[in-house]
Amino acid sequence: MVSFDKPGYGESDPDPIRTPKSLALDIEELADQLSLGSKFYVIGKSMGGQAAWGCLKYTPHRLAGVTLVAPVVNYYWRNLPLNISTEGFNLQQKRDQWAVRVAHYAPWLIYWWNTQNWFPGSSVVNRDGGVLSQPDKDIILKLGSSRKPHLAEVRQQGIHESINRDMIVGFGNWEFDPLELENPFLNREGSVHLWQGDEDMLVPVTLQRYIADKLPWLHYHEVAGGGHFFPLAKGVVDEIVKTALNH
């Protein structure tokens, strides 16, 4: 298994014109540089959904399978009905609703928005654990200090080309709509999976249910009592990987 830092994270160079397409092409090039073969599996979690959806759109011929884990949904996808997107949007805290609006309508303001002190910016950027569900709080408490050594390394280049850029890309105007994607595995030579916790306070489960309904070829796995960090619970990653490999 290979994990890599997206542009602007860790030691990866920033990419101020990053898109879901460029992420997909980055993955394809990385796979070729590492000689991973003509086909490979992709797993994208949370904001990593940008890359996973991008691979399904732009490099389906390279995929052995794709798994999306609590992927962030763009409220502005054109085929997401207004009532569905509004329902999910209204489940977010007001501070996060405003941060999403700024990322979409005024991305040049997002750095200022998330660093000024007049009113609260994005809860994720500011690491406000108060917005998390109880299952997520329990997992973080259990992990304890084991996470801390990595935090500074992840954002060593600052927040703008990392998490702010994720917001700009994630909630911007995409070149395609995932709800229009067709099954890339018509001959059943691979499969696509989407995992989602039903107590995720960062990515509303109602949005994923709609996506799963509109993309019947996608295998949907809803985790009862799971928050956004449910993959960090013991044994869950093994189950996700085995499910992807066994289909």
Automatic annotation (TrEMBL):
Transmembrane segments: none annotated. Residues 2-230 form the AB hydrolase-1 domain. InterPro entries: AB_hydrolase_1, AB_hydrolase_fold. This is Alpha/beta-Hydrolases superfamily protein. It comes from Arabidopsis thaliana. The lineage of its organism: Eukaryota, Viridiplantae, Streptophyta, Embryophyta, Tracheophyta.
